[in-house]
Amino acid sequence: MFYYVLKYVLLGPLLRVLFRPRIEGLDHVPATGAAIIAGNHLSFSDHFLMPAILKRRITFLAKKEYFTGPGIKGRLTAAFFRSAGQIPVDRTGKEAGQAAIREGLGVLAEDELLGIYPEGTRSHDGRLYKGKVGVAVMALKSGVPVIPCAMIGTFEAQPPGKVIPNVHPVAIRFGEPLEFSRYAGMEDEKAILRAVTDEIMYAILSLSEQEYVDEYASVAKAQQAAERERRFLRLPLG
Length: 238
What we know:
Elements: H1 2-10, H2 12-19, E1 22-24, E2 35-39, H3 46-53, E3 58-63, H4 71-83, E4 87-89, H5 94-109, E5 113-116, E6 128-129, H6 134-142, E7 146-152, H7 154-157, E8 171-174, H8 190-208, E9 212-213, H9 217-234
Parallel strand pairs: 1-8, 2-5, 2-7, 3-4, 3-5, 6-9
Antiparallel strand pairs: 7-8
Helix pairs in contact: 2-3, 5-6, 6-8
């Protein structure tokens, strides 16, 4: 119930005023039945903009840190994400990935929309990074279509580290559904999972027109952080 209060009364109207989203290809999202919406991830605002413009409810797999923050702020954030239909996911380790897949398949089994960011984390520089294969596993095991989605302008509206968004127009583009029945029963084959994931990422790239980086975003972030640390340690004292 609170999901729809957020969508139509509290948050949705505010987001439409702030970002003035231009929507393209919304007819590609099925009116009924299960589907995966796979998108790029540029901003914290992405979690709320897509649900605000979709006619149907969508459930996202969200990192568990949004649900485990300390203090009053942490409890309020956790309550907000749960009310918005987000499912906490542990992103560390192989078993964590399997748990996320089980959660996602549970959503699809209820004939609902599942939202996922194949990059696994927000882009730190606005570029599109290599997708993780969990989206392919869920697509092949469930047999549902994958609708590629591109968020455009949300990085400028709310870049990493910015709490209060800029007033900035954004666009949300949905592409034609991708269907992978030709790979049915092959969800344990690594080469197939990589091919399916790359096809999904290419569709997102075609919609977003971002620069593509053939590397996982988490790896690129870690390398960047390590480089900053090395530069700091080289600074002369005094």
